[in-house]
Write a structure and sequence with these properties.
The protein is of the alpha/beta class. The protein contains 14 helices and ten strands. Helix 1 links the parallel strand 2 and strand 3. The longest helix is centred in the last third of the chain and has 17 residues. The model has no long low-confidence stretch (mean pLDDT about 90).
Amino acid sequence: MSYTTLRSTHTDQGVLSVVMDAPPRNLIGPELVRDLVDLVSELETGQDIRVVVLESADPDYFVPHVDLTKVAAYTAEAAKAGGPGDASLGMLWHRLSELPVVTIAKIRGRARGAGSELALACDMRFAALENAVLGQIEVGTGAPPGAGGIQHLARLLGRGRAMEVILGSEDFDARTAERYGWINRAVPDADLDAFVARLARRIASFPAEGVRTAKRVLNELTLPAADGFRADAIRFRDLVTAEAAQTRMKTLFAQGLQTRGPLELNLGDRLGDL
């Protein structure tokens, strides 16, 4: 398929590399969501792809967060993945998790908010030790995570650490994220590409039905139920439009939110200073 914000390449037999390239900083907006809906649809029906590796063209930003000026527009695009009743990023990400192919997030730079949730929806996450930053920043802006962050992190991290991550809204380096269980491994940046490529090739070389069956059973045991994602999306929409969140976001936009500068680079720290 033809995409506007994604570059897809068959790197090896059965392995598809997908590079998100939505300048200026890979914000989740309608164009990126539209392409991801199309990608997921393609992967549901295709038989030649065994493993997908998802990464960013921007070394500073995997996906920083949603475009807060285009919530209605990207939500309308997300609705195309599951109908009006499932018009949310959380349900699109949940559909990604249920794909018969194996998905690997390769993280460099900042993966915050819905960007972290996109990575969490993948089956595995590997991050550059020196430069990857993960954060669930939503509570710091006045709303809870709405696209799976609560559902996944509570299961991966346990109650106490999930509370720390979500309620604290701070940035976490790759080493800490690995220790907490947020990512599979923190890998030196110089070794990350080769490490992920080897794992992807290895999985893709195994008999397809064995891989798909094992993933399906693991999902049955560990993947949060869809109703949790639906409920979180409603809570996010209700609170992100409330006065408290709007006031905080107005302040953040005045300080440089969604521009390439120190606020976005250090957003987790800056949220505590508002």
